[in-house]
Design a protein that fits this description.
Strand 3, helix 2 and strand 4 (about 105-110) form a beta-alpha-beta unit. The chain has two domains: about 10-265, L-amino peptidase D-ALA esterase/amidase (4-Layer Sandwich), CATH 3.60.70.12; about 275-395, Ubiquitin-like (UB roll) (Roll), CATH 3.10.20. The chain is globular. The chain is α+β, with helices and mostly antiparallel strands. Mean pLDDT is about 90; it is low at about 180-185. The strands form two sheets. Strands 1, 2, 3, 4, 5, 6, 7 and 8 form an eight-stranded mixed sheet that branches. The chain is built from eleven helices and 14 strands.
């Protein structure tokens, strides 16, 4: 926390409201801007969308957003009209409590699907937020803890850049550890900046940043009902409108924050022992590269082989082959770490023990698939599939 940069004009809080039975477990967070902020978001592509996703999509993009109220432990998904009414109630109570308008508040939820929210305790919790909001690092930490479900740690990334002599901060907070599948990767993520940007500009930035980050991470390919990535910019830094190189630098930092948060999600996947970075290069275009990377990342056989420290490269090549991209075996070479295993369609003699030890002794492992068909490239992240992951997800609701 000591190294975090905090954006001006934002306050945070996280508290226990009673959604979760453990009184030490925070379950309600508020992220709040003292000034009206421009805001935009991208959301789950699942046809089944949680009530708060519908509410946020109604209200974004906007240049009048003040806050995001978030509850964890209950997704408020597949809950019908009552679920939508409850999401709107969360927004209206937050607005009333913090002296702003209903339409200026966004709502997110995460947790178990198909259960109605305990609005009696949530409403009491929301009414406490005005007293607890603070611009301290500890308050941001409290809010980051309050949005977690099965995560083992909070995910916070902050960066600072200089624009026109002013310090501009981009801070990101995320949660996610399971039901991780792209478009978007299952998670909640919020980016806050004291830079000045319009809602239209933010919509463009966040869509592109999502494609390069959260849409390039997968654990098991399951797309959630609640996925939300929202960015708020309140202009409190005083740097003013950004143009040219300043704008490019800002876009780069927003993307970097999203990429680092996505990486944190992949490494924190339930029970995971390995973060797997898959680089696919040399396809006809980036879309083809991403298609192959995603297929390899979601292969259960690839993931279990890496869990077992088994350098079974045939599973990687096979997954690439059924990804739906046209190529011949001679077009593909494969590395694991710095070890070449397969060159232009031909297996290479390699030290099996050294390859197994690489998987056994490194938490972060890399697979590189190199084609000779063009300049298309994608970097994708996933994790291994462990017995602990199966155990945790086998009894999630019981």
């Amino acid at each position: 926390m000591d190294s975090w940069f905090l954006p001006l004009g934002f306050r945070f809080c996280g508290l226990h409201s009673g959604i979760r039975p453990d009184p030490l477990r925070k379950d309600l967070a508020l992220f709040f801007s003292d000034l009206p902020a421009s805001a935009a978001g991208v959301f789950t592509t699942n046809k089944v969308k949680a009530a708060p996703v519908h509410l946020c999509k109604e209200r974004l993009p906007s240049d009048l957003i003040r806050g995001i109220i978030v509850c964890s432990g209950n997704a408020n998904a597949c809950t019908g009209k009552k679920g939508m009414d409850d999401a709107r109630k969360m927004a209206s109570v937050t607005a009333e409590t913090n002296n702003c308008e209903d339409k200026e508040i966004l709502v997110c939820s995460t947790g178990i699907i198909g259960r109605h929210l305990p609005m009696d305790v949530i409403e009491v919790g929301i009414r406490k937020t005005a007293e607890l909001l603070s611009d301290s690092a500890m308050s941001l930490s409290d809010a980051a803890h309050a949005i977690l479900t099965t995560d083992t740690k909070i995910k916070v990334v902050t960066k600072e850049i200089t624009i026109k002599g002013k310090q501009v901060v981009v801070a990101g907070v995320a949660k996610g550890a399971a039901m991780i599948g792209p478009n978007m990767a299952t998670m909640l993520a919020f980016v806050f900046t004291d830079a000045e940007a319009s809602d239209g500009e933010l919509a463009s930035i966040i869509s592109d940043a999502s494609d390069k980050s959260f849409n390039c991470v997968s654990v098991e390919g399951h797309t959630s009902t609640n996925d939300s990535l929202i960015i708020l910019a309140n202009g409190a830094s005083g740097a003013g409108k950004m143009l040219g190189g300043d704008w490019d630098a800002f876009v780069t930092v927003v993307t970097e924050v999203c990429c680092e948060l996505a990486k944190e999600i992949a490494i924190d996947a339930e029970g995971a022992n390995h973060l797997i970075t898959i680089t696919v290069e040399g396809l006809r275009d980036d879309k083809e590269a991403k298609k192959i990377a995603k297929t390899v990342a979601e292969s259960v056989l690839v993931k279990t082989a890496i869990y077992g420290s088994d350098p079974n490269w045939g599973r990687v090549v096979s997954a690439a082959g059924y990804a739906g991209v046209n190529f011949e075996e001679k077009n593909l070479s494969l590395w694991m770490g710095d070890m070449l295993l397969y060159k232009e369609g031909t297996p290479i003699d390699f030290n099996l023990k050294a390859a197994s030890d690489y998987l056994k002794n490194n938490r972060n492992v890399t697979l590189r698939l190199l084609f000779n068909l063009g300049n298309g490239k994608c970097i994708y992240q996933t994790c291994d599939l462990t017995q602990e992951y199966v155990r945790l997800n086998a009894d999630y609701t019981t």
